[in-house]
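Re: the request from the purification team.
They wanted to know what the chain is likely to look like in 3D before they choose a buffer screen. I agreed to run a prediction and write the result into the notebook, where they can find it.
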Amino acid sequence: MQRAVIRVVAVLLLAVSTQRAGAEIQPIPRRLPPTDGLELSSADRDSLTAELADLRQRLVGQLPPFARTADVTALLKAVELALLHNEFYAAGDLPAARELLALARQRVDQLAAGNPDWLRQRGRVVRGYDSRIDGSPQPYGLEIPDDLDFDRPAPLYVWLHGRGDKQTDLQFIQQRLKRPGQIAPAGAIVLHPFGRHCLGFKSAGEIDVLEAIEHACSQYAIDRRRIVLIGFSMGGAGAWHLGAHYTDRWVAISPGAGFAETAQYNQLTPDRYPAWYEQALWGVYDVPNYVRNLFNVPVVAYSGELDRQIQAARVMEAAFAEQQRELTHLIGPGMGHKYHPDTLAELLRRLGEAVERGQPDQQGQPEEVHLQTRTLRYGRMYWVQLTGLEQHWRDTRVDARRDADRQLRITTSNVHSLRLNPWSDHRGASIQIDGQSLQVPDGGEPRPEVLLQRTNGAWQLATANEPAEDVLRKRPGLQGPIDDVFLEPFLVVTPSGRSASARFQEWQEFELAHFRRRWRAVFRGQLREKTDREVTDQDLARYHLIVWGDADSNELLRRVLKAENPRLPIRWNDDDPVWKVGPQSYDRAHHVPVFIYPNPLNPMRYLVCNSGPTFREGHDRTNSLQNPKLPDWAVLDLRQPPDELSAGRVVTAGFFDEQWQWQAPPEAGQAAGR
């Protein structure tokens, strides 16, 4: 009874203390895609809308189950988003929308007849797939040689396009249907990923590239040992990033122009650096932090002699030189921001030689592997897999060699545990690691992998390399920061109630609506959403959860708090008008914590609280700034309204440790992980 009275009094005091003060939160102007589209006439808008509705109805009512509807819905989405965001920027965009709907109708007719002939179409083809991240249809383009034998595995060249603020789905698809690409290697298929428009092939944009490749490989005979990555401008930046972070997927890499890191490209000096945690998070994408990965495959960089974006290759030349290596850098004489035709021919010749060689063997397993990273998100290279770090956001390396006499020679830095599988059976293998000798037993069952773990400074063979699911430790795909959730399937959980804090309620409603708009406009998808009362056990098993609200408004958050042995370092309850973040307390009247953490209801999935992507409209001016802006957790002061750079004033922020426990942020002036 006394506890109930205390709770009522606390809630009343909180409600009284958080009455709205000041004007409502002001809208944030959208930068991508631009808002200066041409106005359509009512007749044109109505006709497009009616055609879309009819095609949607046919998809629901006339097609057989499991039909390849993404090849249709990707076209429909392009027109729907163009109508919604007024993305008709040129006179030709309205006819293009009509052509896309006509193509969609033709494909629906063919699907209904059981004869989708575009599946074996040559020339320029646009396909679609349903993204695992949010279920949205995403387009990609293909250029298929007229003489291609569909039954014989073909090389794949993945071309990453440049930035085009007004090149949304509609314009991208129309270009891929109408215009030839920059390259046309003989006997190879060229794939043009969309990259979710203008994200610099980062975040969900990088996953779009990987998903488009996987979809193409499922539809065509692709030789996975002969996949080339190439791009120019923003696509060159994407080639640097995807090349360095997913190196073992490519037979060769060719970045053209673009950018390769954050600080130098943006001409930042130390007095203008952002907060320490944002500097640490440059380690997610800055390619010099991953340069040793590029020693595993041929890399042929290109720059125009007069192009300011030659800066990217110069930065990478220096990064190679620091490791006593030399970057192959072709320069187009007298050229600005484009290819010189003769230099492009030489570049393609070199890539063709790599394609002829293919990856090292049928499994793509080289004798020598170099791995460099700062996060377990990018912790795999051929037969080396990091499963635990000593500390995230520090330089981490593995250099490994497998010898013919079944010896492994390995040196590491900042590694806690790893998995090795250079052979199909590792019984009897000898291991030299960091000056220590280990021997894999010769008898027993076949060993398809070797598991190693460092304990008290010494390496030892392990039987289980990954901790049990109920053991909290950062592991691949479950290591943060907040923005990591947007690379995998997630579910947004909205509150069914209201917060006792009027200020928080206003902020949460604004930020959730902002998340929806931004995901649709910039990430070119639709959020997968349920209310807190609708979430099922299947959802908990399948998805990372992005939960909005607080203990007053969201039943799922209350359920999380009541989970057995809750270990969240960030806590709140109905009786307490403060948020508890580690040992600190913050008034709920005008503060909110945002964070990522293993979901106590399923510790193999994330729980993210009250956050969308942490880079915002102000960062869209250059793709080099579309990086994570917040670490694993932060406390925001809501008395500073959300704007184009932040959801609120960051009071404090930090990373959880390797056991997902709170740790004090470094003192002012220190940059953890740098």
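For the purification team: The CA atoms of residues 491 and 539 lie 8 Å apart.
Please add any questions underneath this entry.
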